[in-house]
Structures are given as structure tokens and as C-alpha cells.
Design a protein that fits this description.
GO molecular function, one term: oxidoreductase activity
CATH superfamily: NAD(P)-binding Rossmann-like Domain
Family: Belongs to the short-chain dehydrogenases/reductases (SDR) family.
Strand order of the largest sheet: 3-2-1-4-5-6-7
Helix content: 40-55%
Number of strands: 7
CATH topology: Rossmann fold
Strand content: 5-15%
Keywords: Oxidoreductase
Shape: globular
Number of domains: 1
Pfam family, one: adh_short
Structural class: alpha/beta
Radius of gyration: 20 Å
Largest sheet: 7 strands, parallel
CATH class: Alpha Beta
Protein name: Dehydrogenase/reductase SDR family member 7-like
Distance between the termini: 46 Å
Length: 322
């Protein structure tokens, strides 16, 4: 009996040790071991918004190196051109990559952008909604104008473009797919980023509702939705983040010795999730990953302990090792 218990504890300890090494959820773990490779995206036409830097930029590199055809969108045309010309996609010509600059909040241009995509490639397979901005401020200090501006970027512009693409998928491509860059803050209401967290929660509401609508329709469609719940990642998103005051930018620089995931690693895991058409994935390092498992499966316990451990100082330590 003692030997049996020792074996059980040893197995349990081994799995705990393996879990502690993870920077992604169990869905991605299974996809990495038994699922499809990113190369299954070869030849597909993928439209990435927010592609001029950070996660969107590196996702473009991963997909291009696996043979995808790309539309790169964002506000900074010069940066988009640099992404298109980087070594990862240096062999691409105008038939394989389209630079399509626009502002996601300009909803009146979305149909025109979609028309340009179809004129260039004659089809679209995947839309990755990656455009967005962050925010840093205490709830009580946030001007309501910040809420409006943040939702225009992170939610309303993105949802409007999605509806336009969805109409195309329903009529012409029943195997189309949406990728949506959410956040771990879209699962747990994180302090000091209330407006940002609310905007990501809103994305889950929109896209989970859409998923259920698509599943309930009598028509045969296989339209996929992948929500990327991304944790702290190296990028310039915090430098350009809103604060609580209109017109003010956080200009927060991430320290080099940070607990944040690299954008390269994050983009690779996102590409795995896209290739396997996973519904929702968590991409974040420990201990944030463990914290989110507790929040989902032991919610009452989490609500009791979270306020004590999610102070501004503790969050900074979790993200930046400070």
C-alpha cells in the first residue's frame, strides 16, 4: 500500500513539475504533441490587423515562413513595408503579400479594405483581429473618454470588420476562420487595467455569441473562431498605452529581465492554435497560467485570495520580476 501511494505521489509530482514548465494551456500542449503543424496553413490567405509591430508582426513572420499569403494592416505604412520586406518573407512578391494600411476605428473604410483584399487575392481564409491598445490606471482615475476611445479600438472597429468578413465567409468560404487577440485580462478582471480588461471581456462576449450562433444555424458552415488569451508579452504596447487621462500616454518601458513571454514565442503558439482551429487558448508564463486555471476551476477560492495577491506591486513583480 505504501509503495502504491509513493508511486501515485511520484506521478502527481511529475505532472506538477511538467505543468510548472508550461507557458501555454493544455489545449496547445495536446496540439503541439498530436495536432496539425503550422504548415497546414500553406497557401491560405491570412489578413492580420495590427501587423506593424509586436505580436502581429511576428505572427506574420511565422505564417509567411510556412507558406501563407498575407495581408498586413495597421496605421504605420512604413512599418508595414518593413515587415513585408524582412528576411522571413524576403522571397515574397506582390502576389503573396499585400500591405494594406488603415485605421481600425475608421469603420467607413472597412468594406473598401475588404474589396481590396478580394481584388488582390480573390479570396480570404483567415482574419486575425490583432489591432488594439492597452491602458494603465486605477479605475477611479479613468476619464470616461478613455473608455470610449479604448472600446473604439479594441472592440467596435474590430467587430465591424469581423461582420464584413463574416458575410463573405457565409456566402463564399464556409471554412473561413477568425483569430482574435484577447488577453488573460479578458478572463480575469485584472486591477489597474480596468478599461482594457473590460474591452477584452467584451470581445469574449461578442465572439462566443457568434460561435454559438454559427453552431445553431441549419446551414453547413465550418467557420472557426480562435480566441488568443495572451498574458504579459514583450512589445511596445505598454509604451503607447492609455492612462486615465485623455491625450496622455503611459510610455512604460519593459525591463530586459522581465517575466514576459517573447513575441516570437507568443506568435508561434498562436500559429499552432490557428492551424489546429482551437476555440480558446491561454498563452502566458507561470505563475499567471496557474492563476487563471484557479480562477476558472475554483472561482470562489480565487475571488477570496485574488484581492490579497493582485496588488499593483505584486502584478508588477509577476510581469516584470520587480
Amino acid at each position: 500500500m505504501m509503495l502504491f501511494l509513493l508511486i501515485i505521489f511520484a506521478i502527481f509530482g511529475y505532472f506538477l513539475w511538467k505543468f510548472a514548465q508550461l507557458d501555454h494551456d493544455l489545449e496547445i500542449l495536446l496540439a503541439l504533441k498530436f495536432g496539425k503543424s503550422i504548415s497546414t496553413i500553406k497557401g491560405k490567405v491570412v489578413w492580420i490587423t495590427g501587423a506593424s509591430s509586436g505580436i502581429g508582426e511576428h505572427l506574420a513572420y511565422v505564417l509567411a515562413s510556412n507558406g501563407a499569403k498575407l495581408i498586413l494592416s495597421g496605421r504605420d505604412e512604413s512599418r508595414l513595408n518593413k515587415v513585408a520586406q524582412t528576411s522571413s518573407i524576403a522571397n515574397y512578391d506582390e502576389q503573396n503579400v499585400l500591405v494594406l494600411p488603415f485605421d481600425i476605428i475608421d469603420r467607413h473604410c472597412h468594406q473598401q479594405m475588404m474589396d481590396k483584399v478580394l481584388k488582390h487575392f480573390n479570396r480570404l481564409d483567415i482574419l486575425v483581429n490583432n489591432a488594439g491598445r492597452a491602458q494603465r490606471s486605477w479605475f477611479v482615475d479613468v476619464d470616461s473618454e478613455i473608455d470610449h476611445q479604448l472600446f473604439e479600438i479594441n472592440v467596435f472597429g474590430l467587430v465591424n470588420l469581423t461582420r464584413i468578413v463574416l458575410r463573405y465567409f457565409l456566402e463564399h468560404n464556409p471554412d473561413g476562420q477568425f483569430g482574435v487577440t484577447s488577453s488573460t485580462a479578458g478572463i480575469v478582471g485584472s486591477p489597474f487595467i480596468s478599461s482594457y480588461s473590460a474591452s477584452k471581456h467584451a470581445l469574449h462576449g461578442y465572439f462566443e455569441s457568434l460561435r454559438n450562433e454559427l453552431g445553431s444555424q441549419q446551414t453547413t458552415n465550418n467557420i472557426g473562431i480562435t480566441l488568443f488569451c495572451v498574458g504579459p508579452t514583450f512589445s511596445n504596447i505598454l509604451y503607447n498605452a492609455f492612462t486615465g487621462k485623455p491625450g496622455e500616454i503611459a510610455r512604460q518601458i519593459q525591463p530586459p529581465l522581465s517575466n514576459r513571454m517573447t513575441t516570437e514565442r507568443c506568435a508561434y503558439l498562436m500559429a499552432i492554435a490557428l492551424a489546429n482551429r482551437l476555440d480558446q487558448v491561454w498563452i502566458t508564463r507561470q505563475p499567471t497560467l496557474l492563476m487563471h486555471y484557479v480562477s476558472q476551476y475554483l472561482p470562489q477560492l480565487f475571488r477570496k485570495i485574488a484581492p490579497k495577491y493582485l496588488s499593483k506591486k505584486m502584478l508588477k513583480h509577476l510581469r516584470d520580476l520587480k
